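This part of the workshop introduces the protein records we will be handling. Getting from the letters to the tokens is the skill we practise here. An example says more than a description, so a record of this kind follows:
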Amino acid sequence: MAEDYQMPKGQLMKGKRGVVTGVANHQSIAWGIASQLAAQGAEMAFLHLPGMERRVEPLAESIGVTVLAPVDVTDDASMDAAFGAVKQAFGTIDFFVHAIAFANKDELKGSFVENTTREGFLRAMNISAFSFVDCARRAAELMPEAGGSILTLTYMGSERAIPNYNTMGVAKAALEAATRYAARDLGPRGIRVNALSPGAMKTLSLAGISGGRGMLARGRSLSAMKADTTMEGVAGAALWLLSDLGLSTTGEVIHVDAGFHIMGFSEDEAEG
């Protein structure tokens, strides 16, 4: 619940309203971000997968979130209804967190070339990348003249060939490009658009990748800090980008992975 993580309290988000998508359980990165935003005074709505009410409602209640709506990002009518609920509740919003991604589990293992299907590829791109474009357009329409902030979540598999990440890596690469294009388009309206790239963490998404658990240990051992990526670290970076602290930052992909992304090869490999 709200006590899952030690999030710094304050008033950086006092008076700000926004939307967080992708909360599924207490290990969701979206939940960590929502917890930090709530600790800093934000008022939020949750958009969640249909059928996830029993998991999401107790979490929402623990931080005072009363606006919840199911959404299927592949269905325009569902998107219309969800964003309509947000508009009815808040009128305008100051921030939007996109934490939505999917790829068929059978394609998140082995050979990317051999295992990727047309249907699976298009579905991953639709849910993981196009949904961000659609959400950004809809969220921007609800933001005031003063602007706002839009944030999405990616992973280093977009930049490097991570074993088993496959189609999701390609979708995340598209998502990062979409972040830059959205930042260019929405910048004149005072809307900032950025992406966070956390290291491997214990989430439902990681569990869906073949060998995902091994990515945790590997990421720790190969990181510059020899440490796990923490929820507090990721949520803190999100707070920076979503609050007024990030007023001059847009179009960026910020790595929050204990320095994993800067490393070339391990000390053992260097000594060999």
